[in-house]
Fold this protein.
Amino acid sequence: MGAHGTGTTMKNMFNPIIFTRRRIIAIAIGIVGAAVIYSTINFGVARYFGNSEKPRATAPTDAGAARRYDAIYRTLPAGFTHCGRMLFYTAPADTSVRAVADLAVPFTSFYKAYRLRDAIRSFNAISGDEIEKGQMVFIPHSLPALMPDMRNSRKPPLIFARGLYYTGSSAGRESLLENIDEYKELGINCIVFDAKDVCGIVNYKSRVPEAIETDAHGKRTIDDIDQLIRILKEKKIYVIARLALFHDQHMFKHNPDWAIQSKSGDGPWRAEAKEKWLDPTNKAAQDYNLALAVELAEKGVDEIQFDYIRFPTTGKQGDAEFAYDFGTMSRDDTITAFLKRAHEEIAKRNVLLSIDIFGVVAWGKEIDIIKTGQRIERLAEHCDIISPMLYPSHFNDDFDGYARPGDHPYYFIHEGCKKVIALAKGKTVRPWLQAFRWRVSNYNEHYIIKQVKAVKDSGAYGYLFWNAANDYRVVLRAMESIDTETALAGERSASPLAAREVRNEHHERPR
C-alpha cells in the first residue's frame, strides 16, 4: 500500500517520531506469534531428526558413525519462545534479570550467567534488575535448535589419562576453558571436576527430585554443565565427573534419616573431625547418589568417579547404627552390592565407572578393609578403573619402615600400584598422585617426575593429580620438562593395553 493509503511504509514505520511504544509492542507480538508457529514446526522437525544422522558432509565424532544431534529446546522453560536463532522471554509474573539469565544460560553460548545478565540488560536497555509481568525481553546469543548430542553412542576407550582435578568453583570459571589448550600442549588430556563434593553441594542444575527439594544445587558454581562437557570433549579432553558419595554434609542436614544413627538415641551419629556421613546401607542415600550418577552419564561425560565409596573410619564405631535396608551384611558386602548396582546402570549409558580407594587398603590389612568396606578384589568386578589415593604424605610416619613417607614418593606410588594391580583382576589401575607440599620436605618438579616414573614402572595406566586449591604450577613445570615423545613411548610400553593406537590416548574412538 502506498504512502498516501491507510497503511504504513517501511520508511515511515521506522521513523523515530512515528515508531511509538505501541508499534514496538505490536511488532514484538508479531515476531513472537511467528516464533510460536515456527517453533512448533521446528520442534517437531528437531524431535524427529534429533537422534538421526546428519547429512554425510558433516564430520562424524565417532569413527565409522555419523554425528548425532539433540533438540535442545525440548526442555525450554515456561515463558520462553524461540524462532531459529532468536530466543525471547515473556515474564508470566514479576521477575528479575538474574532469574531469567539463570534459566536461559543453557540455551545460549554464554558459560557464565553473569555475562548473560549483562548482555540481556544491554540488548533490552534495562537499567536495573527488574522485569515486570508481561514484559518481553530478547535473549542474545541463543544456540541453534539442533546441537551435537554429547551422549556417548559407545563406551569411550580407556586412555592413558594425565589428568588434573578441579573443584566445582574452579570448573565453573571461564579460566579453566581458556587454559585447556595450553594444558594440552603439556600433555594433559583429562579433567576431573567436582559434580558433588563432601559439602554436598551439587555443582550444576540438577533434575534429581531430592536435589531440587533440598536445594542441593542452590549454591551451584557451574552455570552451564552441558557447555563445559561439550567444550572439553570438542577439545579431545577426557571428562570425569567426581561424586563424593556417602560423606555428604548437605543431605546429613536436610535428610537426617539418611544418616548413620547413634545407638545412644541422640540423633545422627557423628564421626570425628566434624565429618557428616550418610548411611551406606540406607536405600534412599544410595538411590540419591545413583540418580546423580545416571544424570551425569546422560549428559555425556566419559567417566563417573565415585569417591567416599566407603564407611567412615573415625569416631565411636560401636555407637554407629545402620539401617540395613538390603538386609544385614558386612561392610564390604554393602559397598560391593551398591557398586554392582551402580555399574549396571552407568554401563547402560556407555559411560565408564571408576572408584577412589584408600591408599592403605592396597597393603591388604584386614582391619583397614573391615573398617572401610573396600575389598579391592571384589570391587574390581564391578567397575572399569580403580584409582588408589597413594599420596605419600598420607601414610603414617614409619609406615613400611619409612620415617617420613611424604619424602619417598617413588616407593609409595610404585609399591601401592603394584599391590593394587595384583588384586584388580585385570582392571585398569590409575592412581591419584600428590600435587601438594603437605608433609613433604622438598616439593618441586622432581617430586612430580618421581611419581610419574613410579606409575610407568609399576605397570599402572595413567595418573591423576590432586591439589585441593587447584594450583598446578609445579605439575605443569614438571610436565613441560618431560620429553613428550619419550614419555608417551614409555606409557604405551608400560600399559596393559599397549596394542591400542596412539589416537586412543587423545580420546579418539577406535576404528
Remarks:
- Residues 1-27, 35-65, 491-511 have pLDDT under 50 and may be disordered.
- The CA atoms of residues 186 and 476 lie 7 Å apart.
- The chain has two domains: 10-148, 162-389+482-506.
